Structures are given as C-alpha cells and as structure tokens.
C-alpha cells in the first residue's frame, strides 16, 4: 500500500543542471559553471525558497573533485552547502552526472572501486555539513540514457557506437551504482537513494511493422535495464535488490515518446500523434514493476509552453496517484535555464530564464507565467507557496494530496501541449 508520510517537505521539487561529461569535439564540460550556478548559488536557492520549493537536485562533480589516489577536493560544493543551509533547501546529491575521471575504463573493476570510494568520501563530506537529514543521493544519474548517449550515439565519453556496448556500459554503470549505495549505507544506513532514468515509449514507423518487435524491446527491455539490475531483477550476481533501488526517479520530456529509427537517436513524436500514450500510464507501469516510492525527477516544457506542460504533468501525476501509485513529488527541472548541449542555445525550459549582461553575467529572470501556474497548483493541493522558517517540521501528507486528487478527479490523456 502507498504510504501516508511523504519523503520530502514539499511536493514540488526542482534542481540545477550539473553535467560534467567529456563531450564530443569539446572535451570536459561543467554545466554548473556554464549556467553560473556556482556564482549565483545564494540567489538560486533563495529563488527556490520564494517559490515554496524545499528540495533541489544538486551535483557533486566526480571528475572535478577526484584527483586520484584517494585525494579529493570538495571545496567546489561549499557554496551550495552554505546556500542550502541559509535558505533551508534539502539537497538530493547527484554523485555522477554523466562524467567520470579521465583515464578510467567504465567497464573495469577499477571504475567500480573508484566510484564507490568517491561516493563514501562525498557522503561523509556532506553529512558533516548537512543541516537536515536524512541524506538523499542519486549515485548514477540516468545510467540507461547515458548508455545511449555515451555507449551508442558517441555524444560523450566513453564514445561507444554499438547497441552491444551500450548495454554493457549501462550494466557497468548500474554495477557501480550498487557498489556506491552499499558503501554509503555502511556509514549512513538511513541514507535514501533516488535512481533516475527517463520514462520512454517507442513505436515503429507506420510503414514498418517489421520494426514493432525492436520498438517494443526499447520500451520494455532496454529502457528498464539499469533499474532491473539495481533492483536485482537482472544480473542478481551484481548485488542489486529492491532496498538498493529504494526510490524511483522518472524523468519525462516530450521527446521521450519516439518513433523507432534503426540508426538512433529515434524521432520524437509530434504533438497530436495518435501513438502518444498518457504519462499516467507510463508512470503506473514503471511503479507496478518495482513497487517502490517514486517521483517525477525531471520534467519541463519549453518557452511559452511551460505553463501548459506543468498543467499536463500535474494532472497526469494526480491521475496516477488515484490509481494507487506511490508518487511523492514532481521535480520541475531545471530551476535555472540551461543551454542545449549540442548548440549552446538557451532552451528556455527553466523556472527562471537567464539574460546575459554586457559583463558576461547571466541575470536570472523568472518566467512569471510558469511561476504563477506553479502557485495555482500549490494552492489547489494545499501546499505552501513560499517556505516558512522551518519547512522540515513535517513531511508532505500524501493523504492530503490524494484527497485533492479525488476531489479534482483528473482524467489522463495523450494531448500534450
């Protein structure tokens, strides 16, 4: 049965882009620096506080901290720790957001051992400075998606180019994830883990019914590979279990529903395509497979469509709750706009956009229609619209969310704006 006490102090969450991949034709990138979050941490966390959001995904950049031989320099996250404390924001720490130290083979035992050692050091560092518990971590962010972009599409290291390598890479990331969870919990047995990957749906081209089996495999086999390994459903010799899977983070964007291409990436389905499925269905399928607490861990619309997208996401989430899904929150990601990885253009998908000033500073500009839409939903769900002095005095009462869902009786649909 779903629980009554929520995992978090607020139902709406957010976070900051923190990728540190070795990117094709560019080399090592630091998206935290590219959005100037490291220089605007106090402002960015104050912004979340003003929105009534008390939880944020934040990165601890493994390749920028781990100098080898057990030598770590965590000083780059000190400004985030201070801002979190000042503004009473609870972090979910990403320990590996697509980046690993140069020279490591991700399929090797050394990769697993080094990541587990880093995870332990990172957990100890933030635990000594945490202003509120328990500790939340995402050990490997999107291992299944990283498998595609780094293992088959060669967007980022390790620059693999085949489906076979992609599957082996994803499995290796899941193995390292399991080792990190066990290492952290040896010191902090109450630490919670949020395992995040995209929700996807893949269909064959209308004129290629012969690709239906391949599309189905992408939707129901490959898409769940990392969660299956971490939960112990696949490769049980790697040590996964439902307790290690812990919390499922379901990422959802419009391009997650796709038409199969024999040479990927696949093509996003256009709005109005009759093959699009309601998000509620996808959430329910994932939850019923693992029966673990879950959140929508990333979601956002683009430009002027952000309020409509938020309306859709909340309706689909509430509909899933009415079906019995143990959904604990919706993460509006990112809080601050981010660049397109491929061309550097600002996506206008954040709660706040950025405006470059003549001196190069990126001024934060809240997108007011999105903010106003968020506040309307907070009021409908009996949530706060700004944080008080102690947002941690009580977790979200999920029964309250369920009552609101029952009163609204939302109907899931495939009409994505």
UniProtKB/TrEMBL annotation:
What is an example of a GO molecular function annotated in this UniProt entry?
Answer: hydrolase activity, acting on glycosyl bonds
The record ties this protein, via InterPro entries, to:
GH
Q: Which key words are in the record? A: Glycosidase, Hydrolase
* Gene3D superfamilies in UniProt: Glycosidases
Domain of life of the organism encoding this protein? Bacteria
Protein name (Swiss-Prot/TrEMBL): B-glycosidase
Source organism (scientific name): Allosphingosinicella deserti
